[in-house]
Design goal:
Elements: H1 3-12, H2 28-46, E1 59-63, H3 72-85, E2 90-94, E3 106-107, H4 114-117, H5 119-128, E4 132-134, H6 138-147, E5 152-156, E6 168-174, E7 202-206, E8 214-225, E9 231-232, E10 241-246, H7 251-260, E11 264-269, E12 288-291, H8 293-299, E13 307-316, H9 318-330
Parallel strand pairs: 1-5, 1-6, 2-4, 2-5, 6-7, 7-8, 10-11, 10-12, 12-13
Antiparallel strand pairs: 3-4, 8-9, 8-13
Length: 349
Amino acid sequence: MSGFARRLLERSWQRRWCLWLPPLPLLLLPAALFGAAVTLRRGLYRHGLLPRARLSVPVIVVGNISVGGNGKTPFTQWLVQRLQDYGYRPAVLSRGYGARNGPRPLRVEASLGADACGDEPLLLAQSTGAPVYVDAKRARAGRRAIADGANVLVCDDGLQHYRLRRDIEIVLVDGKRRFGNGLPLPAGPLREPRSRLAEADFVVVKGEGMAGEASMQFVNYRLRRLQNGALFEPATFAGRTVHAIAGIAAPDGFFDSLRRLGMTVIEHPQPDHAVLRAQSLDFGDDLAVVMTGKDAVKCRPFAHSRCFSLDFDVQLDDAFAARLLEKLERGQKTARRPGLSAVQGPAGL
């Protein structure tokens, strides 16, 4: 599917009336099958018919029930940094989407290329300094992290990875898009039904949350030159036209952020995790090129002097951080999920 077609489909997920326009009616049957498969799989884990691996340190899962663009990576950065502030030694477990094949688990070094480990793991390693491990088998990566000294594990994008027992579940939601038309993939954006939220320990909303949800805001924006790391206030670019590159799941939010900061934006949306090369940054003029942090880790080796990433801080209520720490220190699940008691899994998980 082309990038243009993908964007049209994803936008249609936000509009209920599109369900009755081609080609979405054709997607209702595969959506129903997908939803049934998700329910069956989860039920098998819930009733202990599929094994789940228990590790010796707490596992915090960060994920979502809908297709990306929910702020998962910035939240994971914030979470790892808070854990470090609290005196923990966190490690991040990631599937490493887009990474080339190689020995697993792979410990991500900040000097690696994104093609070796994936853009999100590289960004997390560079921004937090925490050890990051890439492996489709998260439990195997977790055992390696524990052997290396980690005493708490953050499983990035791991909500549906039920083979690894979790102690805390945190679900990210986009406050603007929420759950779209409420249908499963591919007719809608949902990986799991909305009822799944009731089983999570915390729901964090990018933007303004509702009752019972924690609100996550992006603040203190600045632009960082890729070549040397120099920082610039957004006012430096206000009133200027810039090329904007976004290889993320929901690029419109990034473009809107630049406009709110006063820039005139020439949009260059890319598929999520897109491979970028030097020619991707050459638009035949002398305008600045602004990109997301996830794109910057891929472009830094060949970026020219007019390339910048948009950096920001993540802000969450202090009460949320306190509740999270309390939950972690208690080291036990809430009574809301008795059906997910762990079964010791084989070492290969």
